[in-house]
Amino acid sequence: MASTPRSHRSLDGLVLSPVADQAPGQVGTRTRFTYHEEDGRIWAEYAGGDVVRGHLVGTRAGDRLDFRYVQLKHDGSTSSGHCVSTVVELPDGRVRLEESWAWESQEGSGTSVVEQLPS
């Protein structure tokens, strides 16, 4: 019996937030990411906590996101990096992104989880 390809839930218009704070001066639970998606391209704006303004841009293949990000903090510093995320659908229908990231403008790397905020 042939299986039907799974449709992937669009991220377009979703607002997500980290489930835990990262290191001081980085994104945290007060940061909000607003995602957009079209034809395998993804982008988002984010702000909150120590981040005045941030942007990410990249691609989506199935449930894998690959993007670069850049952000401006309240102290006037900027930073940028690369992230690969896996899109997971939660039992309640919300979306979770399980992320592996690395700074390119400074030292540091890690993992994080962001989840869609309840409506």
Chain-wise SSE layout:
Blueprint: E1 15-18, E2 32-38, E3 41-48, E4 51-61, E5 64-73, E6 78-89, E7 95-103, E8 109-116
Antiparallel strand pairs: 1-2, 1-8, 2-3, 3-4, 4-5, 5-6, 6-7, 7-8
Task: Please outline what is shown here.
With 119 residues, the protein is mainly beta.
3D structure, described in words:
- It holds the Pfam family Avidin_like.
- InterPro entries: Avidin-like.
- It comes from Streptomyces lateritius.
- This is N-acetylglutamate synthase.
- With 119 residues, the protein is mainly β.
- It has one domain: Lipocalin (Beta Barrel), CATH 2.40.128.30.
- It has an 8-stranded antiparallel beta barrel with strand order 1-2-3-4-5-6-7-8.
- The radius of gyration is 15 Å and the shape is globular.
The SSE string, one letter per element, is EEEEEEEE
Radius of gyration based on Cα positions? 15 Å
Name the overall outline: globular
Overall average residue pLDDT: 91
The number of distinct helices, counting runs of at least 4 residues, comes to 0
Pfam families: Avidin_like (PF26421)
Region (Disordered): 1-28
Protein name: N-acetylglutamate synthase
InterPro entries: Avidin-like
List keywords for this structure.
119 residues, mainly beta, Lipocalin, eight-stranded antiparallel beta barrel, N-acetylglutamate synthase
